[in-house]
Amino acid sequence: MRAADLEAGSLQASVLTLRNWLAAATALLDNVGVRDARIAAEWLAMAALGMDRAGLYARLGETLSVEAAARLSVWLDRCRAREPVAYIVGEREFWSRAFTITPAVLVPRPETEHVVEAAVDCFPEGRTGEAVRVCDVGTGSGCIAVSLACEWPRAFVLATDVSLPALRVARRNAQRHGVVDRMYFVCSHALDGLSPASLDLVVANPPYLTTEEWNRAEPELRWEPRLALDGGADGLDVVRAIVEGARRALRPGGWLILEVGATQAQRVEALLREAGMERGFVRHDLAGWPRVIAARN
Ligand code: GLN
Fold first, then answer.
1. Residue nearest atom 8 of ligand 1, based on CA coordinates
2. Residues 24-48 pLDDT 10s
3. Ligand 1 within 6 A of CB of 141
4. Residue 257 and which of 55, 102, 121, 144 are 20 to 30 A apart at CA?
5. Ligand 1 within 6 A of 297 CB?
6. pLDDT above 90: percentage of residues in the chain
Protein backbone atom coordinates (compact mmCIF):
# COMPACT_ATOMS: atom_id res chain seq x y z
CA MET A 1 0.00 0.00 0.00
CA ARG A 2 1.25 3.45 -0.83
CA ALA A 3 1.13 6.38 1.60
CA ALA A 4 -1.07 8.22 -0.87
CA ASP A 5 -3.69 5.47 -0.65
CA LEU A 6 -3.88 5.76 3.10
CA GLU A 7 -4.15 9.51 2.84
CA ALA A 8 -6.92 9.36 0.29
CA GLY A 9 -8.68 6.64 2.28
CA SER A 10 -9.01 4.87 -1.01
CA LEU A 11 -8.28 1.39 0.27
CA GLN A 12 -10.99 -0.78 1.67
CA ALA A 13 -10.80 -1.56 5.36
CA SER A 14 -10.54 -5.23 4.47
CA VAL A 15 -7.00 -4.80 3.18
CA LEU A 16 -5.87 -2.46 5.90
CA THR A 17 -3.70 -4.91 7.75
CA LEU A 18 -1.48 -3.78 10.59
CA ARG A 19 1.54 -4.39 8.37
CA ASN A 20 0.15 -2.14 5.65
CA TRP A 21 -0.84 0.56 8.08
CA LEU A 22 2.62 0.58 9.68
CA ALA A 23 4.33 0.84 6.30
CA ALA A 24 2.10 3.65 5.07
CA ALA A 25 2.16 5.56 8.37
CA THR A 26 5.96 5.31 8.48
CA ALA A 27 6.20 6.77 4.98
CA LEU A 28 3.81 9.62 5.82
CA LEU A 29 5.68 10.50 9.01
CA ASP A 30 9.02 10.25 7.29
CA ASN A 31 7.81 12.65 4.60
CA VAL A 32 7.12 15.39 7.13
CA GLY A 33 10.50 14.89 8.82
CA VAL A 34 9.52 12.90 11.91
CA ARG A 35 12.64 11.24 13.25
CA ASP A 36 12.47 7.45 13.76
CA ALA A 37 9.18 7.39 11.90
CA ARG A 38 8.81 3.60 12.08
CA ILE A 39 9.15 3.63 15.87
CA ALA A 40 6.62 6.46 16.15
CA ALA A 41 4.16 4.49 14.01
CA GLU A 42 4.70 1.38 16.12
CA TRP A 43 4.10 3.34 19.33
CA LEU A 44 0.81 4.66 17.97
CA ALA A 45 -0.28 1.18 16.92
CA MET A 46 0.75 -0.40 20.23
CA ALA A 47 -1.29 2.16 22.17
CA ALA A 48 -4.31 1.98 19.87
CA LEU A 49 -4.40 -1.82 20.04
CA GLY A 50 -3.29 -2.15 23.67
CA MET A 51 -0.36 -4.44 22.99
CA ASP A 52 3.40 -4.48 23.36
CA ARG A 53 5.88 -4.69 20.48
CA ALA A 54 5.98 -8.49 20.55
CA GLY A 55 2.18 -8.57 20.31
CA LEU A 56 2.28 -6.14 17.43
CA TYR A 57 4.75 -8.23 15.46
CA ALA A 58 2.77 -11.38 16.11
CA ARG A 59 -0.30 -9.80 14.53
CA LEU A 60 1.09 -7.90 11.55
CA GLY A 61 -1.13 -9.82 9.14
CA GLU A 62 -4.38 -9.02 10.94
CA THR A 63 -6.90 -6.56 9.59
CA LEU A 64 -7.47 -3.40 11.66
CA SER A 65 -10.93 -3.01 13.16
CA VAL A 66 -12.91 0.03 12.01
CA GLU A 67 -12.52 1.57 15.49
CA ALA A 68 -8.76 1.05 15.60
CA ALA A 69 -8.34 2.39 12.07
CA ALA A 70 -10.38 5.49 12.92
CA ARG A 71 -8.42 6.19 16.08
CA LEU A 72 -5.11 5.63 14.34
CA SER A 73 -6.05 7.98 11.57
CA VAL A 74 -6.70 10.82 14.05
CA TRP A 75 -3.50 10.04 15.94
CA LEU A 76 -1.49 9.89 12.74
CA ASP A 77 -2.68 13.38 11.80
CA ARG A 78 -1.54 14.70 15.17
CA CYS A 79 1.80 12.98 14.80
CA ARG A 80 2.23 14.49 11.33
CA ALA A 81 1.65 17.90 12.91
CA ARG A 82 4.76 16.99 14.98
CA GLU A 83 2.99 16.51 18.30
CA PRO A 84 5.10 14.11 20.42
CA VAL A 85 3.71 10.57 20.43
CA ALA A 86 3.79 10.44 24.25
CA TYR A 87 1.28 13.32 24.43
CA ILE A 88 -0.94 11.71 21.82
CA VAL A 89 -1.13 8.36 23.56
CA GLY A 90 -0.73 9.79 27.09
CA GLU A 91 2.04 7.42 28.14
CA ARG A 92 5.72 6.59 27.87
CA GLU A 93 7.73 3.71 29.25
CA PHE A 94 10.65 4.51 31.52
CA TRP A 95 12.82 2.05 33.48
CA SER A 96 10.34 -0.70 32.48
CA ARG A 97 7.23 1.04 33.83
CA ALA A 98 4.52 2.98 32.03
CA PHE A 99 4.26 6.64 33.04
CA THR A 100 1.27 8.88 32.45
CA ILE A 101 2.43 11.83 30.35
CA THR A 102 0.70 15.16 29.64
CA PRO A 103 1.99 18.33 27.97
CA ALA A 104 2.64 19.68 31.50
CA VAL A 105 5.74 17.49 31.68
CA LEU A 106 8.81 16.63 29.65
CA VAL A 107 8.57 13.33 27.79
CA PRO A 108 10.94 10.90 29.54
CA ARG A 109 14.00 10.04 27.43
CA PRO A 110 15.93 6.75 27.41
CA GLU A 111 19.19 8.49 28.36
CA THR A 112 17.61 9.61 31.64
CA GLU A 113 17.46 5.97 32.68
CA HIS A 114 21.22 6.23 33.23
CA VAL A 115 20.47 8.59 36.14
CA VAL A 116 18.40 5.88 37.83
CA GLU A 117 21.02 3.26 37.01
CA ALA A 118 23.82 5.39 38.52
CA ALA A 119 21.76 6.04 41.67
CA VAL A 120 20.99 2.34 42.10
CA ASP A 121 24.71 1.55 41.77
CA CYS A 122 25.72 4.22 44.31
CA PHE A 123 23.31 2.93 46.95
CA PRO A 124 23.17 -0.88 46.84
CA GLU A 125 21.83 -0.69 50.40
CA GLY A 126 18.66 0.93 49.04
CA ARG A 127 17.46 -2.41 47.68
CA THR A 128 18.06 -4.17 50.98
CA GLY A 129 15.81 -1.77 52.84
CA GLU A 130 18.05 1.12 53.91
CA ALA A 131 16.09 4.38 54.15
CA VAL A 132 17.98 6.40 51.50
CA ARG A 133 16.91 10.07 51.59
CA VAL A 134 16.71 11.37 48.04
CA CYS A 135 15.49 14.48 46.28
CA ASP A 136 14.65 14.54 42.54
CA VAL A 137 14.88 18.18 41.47
CA GLY A 138 12.56 19.13 38.60
CA THR A 139 10.74 15.84 38.77
CA GLY A 140 8.39 16.51 35.82
CA SER A 141 6.52 13.25 35.20
CA GLY A 142 8.23 11.84 38.29
CA CYS A 143 9.97 9.22 36.17
CA ILE A 144 13.26 9.31 38.11
CA ALA A 145 11.73 9.76 41.59
CA VAL A 146 9.04 7.08 41.15
CA SER A 147 11.54 4.63 39.65
CA LEU A 148 13.84 5.07 42.67
CA ALA A 149 10.93 4.72 45.09
CA CYS A 150 10.05 1.45 43.34
CA GLU A 151 13.66 0.21 43.51
CA TRP A 152 14.16 1.11 47.16
CA PRO A 153 11.37 -0.16 49.41
CA ARG A 154 12.16 2.11 52.35
CA ALA A 155 13.49 5.23 50.67
CA PHE A 156 12.33 8.72 51.55
CA VAL A 157 11.73 10.35 48.17
CA LEU A 158 11.18 14.04 47.76
CA ALA A 159 10.12 15.25 44.31
CA THR A 160 10.28 18.97 43.56
CA ASP A 161 9.24 21.04 40.60
CA VAL A 162 8.51 24.71 39.93
CA SER A 163 5.37 23.61 38.07
CA LEU A 164 2.28 22.56 40.05
CA PRO A 165 0.65 20.88 37.03
CA ALA A 166 3.84 18.81 36.65
CA LEU A 167 3.72 17.79 40.32
CA ARG A 168 0.15 16.58 39.82
CA VAL A 169 1.32 14.31 37.01
CA ALA A 170 4.21 13.04 39.16
CA ARG A 171 1.80 12.27 42.00
CA ARG A 172 -0.48 10.35 39.64
CA ASN A 173 2.49 8.29 38.54
CA ALA A 174 3.46 7.60 42.14
CA GLN A 175 -0.10 6.41 42.78
CA ARG A 176 -0.05 4.32 39.64
CA HIS A 177 3.04 2.48 40.84
CA GLY A 178 2.02 2.17 44.47
CA VAL A 179 4.70 4.38 46.03
CA VAL A 180 2.77 7.58 46.77
CA ASP A 181 2.85 6.89 50.54
CA ARG A 182 6.63 7.12 50.54
CA MET A 183 6.89 10.22 48.41
CA TYR A 184 6.64 13.94 49.06
CA PHE A 185 5.84 16.52 46.42
CA VAL A 186 7.01 20.09 46.85
CA CYS A 187 6.64 23.09 44.59
CA SER A 188 10.03 24.78 44.78
CA HIS A 189 13.03 25.97 42.84
CA ALA A 190 16.20 23.84 42.93
CA LEU A 191 16.65 22.73 46.56
CA ASP A 192 15.25 25.81 48.26
CA GLY A 193 14.06 25.40 51.82
CA LEU A 194 15.66 22.04 52.61
CA SER A 195 17.49 21.53 55.90
CA PRO A 196 21.28 21.42 55.64
CA ALA A 197 22.87 17.96 55.36
CA SER A 198 19.46 16.26 55.27
CA LEU A 199 19.86 14.19 52.09
CA ASP A 200 21.94 11.21 50.95
CA LEU A 201 21.30 11.78 47.26
CA VAL A 202 20.22 14.51 44.86
CA VAL A 203 19.24 13.49 41.34
CA ALA A 204 18.14 15.73 38.49
CA ASN A 205 17.59 15.91 34.78
CA PRO A 206 17.64 19.71 34.66
CA PRO A 207 16.80 21.90 31.67
CA TYR A 208 20.17 22.11 29.94
CA LEU A 209 19.63 23.39 26.40
CA THR A 210 20.93 26.87 25.69
CA THR A 211 18.17 29.33 24.81
CA GLU A 212 19.72 29.44 21.34
CA GLU A 213 19.43 25.62 21.01
CA TRP A 214 15.86 25.77 22.27
CA ASN A 215 15.05 28.35 19.60
CA ARG A 216 16.38 26.07 16.89
CA ALA A 217 14.91 22.85 18.28
CA GLU A 218 12.86 20.48 16.15
CA PRO A 219 9.07 20.95 16.15
CA GLU A 220 8.29 18.17 18.66
CA LEU A 221 10.32 19.95 21.34
CA ARG A 222 8.14 23.04 21.04
CA TRP A 223 5.21 21.06 22.47
CA GLU A 224 7.15 20.35 25.65
CA PRO A 225 7.33 22.80 28.58
CA ARG A 226 10.02 25.38 27.88
CA LEU A 227 10.85 25.42 31.60
CA ALA A 228 11.88 21.79 31.35
CA LEU A 229 14.31 22.39 28.48
CA ASP A 230 15.69 25.93 28.37
CA GLY A 231 18.66 26.31 30.72
CA GLY A 232 19.42 29.95 29.83
CA ALA A 233 22.22 31.56 27.82
CA ASP A 234 24.80 28.81 28.42
CA GLY A 235 22.29 26.12 29.35
CA LEU A 236 23.62 25.86 32.89
CA ASP A 237 21.45 28.28 34.91
CA VAL A 238 19.52 25.55 36.69
CA VAL A 239 22.56 23.27 36.97
CA ARG A 240 24.38 26.02 38.91
CA ALA A 241 21.43 26.45 41.27
CA ILE A 242 21.22 22.69 41.85
CA VAL A 243 24.95 22.35 42.57
CA GLU A 244 24.79 25.19 45.08
CA GLY A 245 21.69 23.73 46.72
CA ALA A 246 23.11 20.20 46.76
CA ARG A 247 26.26 21.38 48.54
CA ARG A 248 24.05 22.54 51.39
CA ALA A 249 21.33 19.89 51.42
CA LEU A 250 23.55 16.81 51.04
CA ARG A 251 25.21 15.19 54.04
CA PRO A 252 29.01 14.93 53.80
CA GLY A 253 29.72 12.05 51.42
CA GLY A 254 26.25 12.30 49.84
CA TRP A 255 25.93 11.96 46.05
CA LEU A 256 24.78 14.38 43.36
CA ILE A 257 23.80 12.67 40.09
CA LEU A 258 23.02 14.91 37.13
CA GLU A 259 22.04 14.40 33.53
CA VAL A 260 23.87 16.89 31.29
CA GLY A 261 23.82 17.99 27.65
CA ALA A 262 25.88 15.98 25.16
CA THR A 263 28.73 18.51 25.13
CA GLN A 264 28.48 19.87 28.68
CA ALA A 265 30.25 17.23 30.77
CA GLN A 266 33.57 19.05 31.09
CA ARG A 267 31.99 22.35 32.01
CA VAL A 268 29.73 20.74 34.60
CA GLU A 269 32.67 18.84 36.09
CA ALA A 270 34.57 22.12 36.39
CA LEU A 271 31.56 23.68 38.06
CA LEU A 272 31.34 20.82 40.56
CA ARG A 273 35.06 21.09 41.30
CA GLU A 274 34.82 24.84 41.86
CA ALA A 275 31.90 24.25 44.22
CA GLY A 276 34.17 21.94 46.25
CA MET A 277 32.59 18.61 45.35
CA GLU A 278 34.61 15.46 44.92
CA ARG A 279 34.75 13.79 41.51
CA GLY A 280 32.70 10.61 41.24
CA PHE A 281 32.16 9.08 37.81
CA VAL A 282 30.70 9.75 34.37
CA ARG A 283 28.25 7.49 32.53
CA HIS A 284 27.93 7.50 28.75
CA ASP A 285 24.62 7.11 26.97
CA LEU A 286 23.96 4.60 24.18
CA ALA A 287 25.04 7.19 21.61
CA GLY A 288 28.39 7.49 23.40
CA TRP A 289 27.91 10.95 24.95
CA PRO A 290 29.06 11.58 28.53
CA ARG A 291 25.51 11.96 29.79
CA VAL A 292 25.39 11.46 33.54
CA ILE A 293 27.78 12.96 36.06
CA ALA A 294 28.07 11.82 39.65
CA ALA A 295 29.92 13.77 42.34
CA ARG A 296 30.29 13.49 46.12
CA ASN A 297 29.74 16.15 48.71
N1 GLN B 1 12.74 14.56 35.70
C2 GLN B 1 11.96 14.57 34.52
C3 GLN B 1 12.63 13.73 33.46
O4 GLN B 1 13.74 13.37 33.61
C5 GLN B 1 11.72 15.99 34.03
C6 GLN B 1 13.00 16.70 33.75
C7 GLN B 1 12.77 18.11 33.27
O8 GLN B 1 11.63 18.59 33.28
N9 GLN B 1 13.82 18.77 32.87
O10 GLN B 1 12.05 13.40 32.44
1. 228
2. 999 999 999 999 999 999 999 999 9
3. yes
4. 102
5. no
6. 93
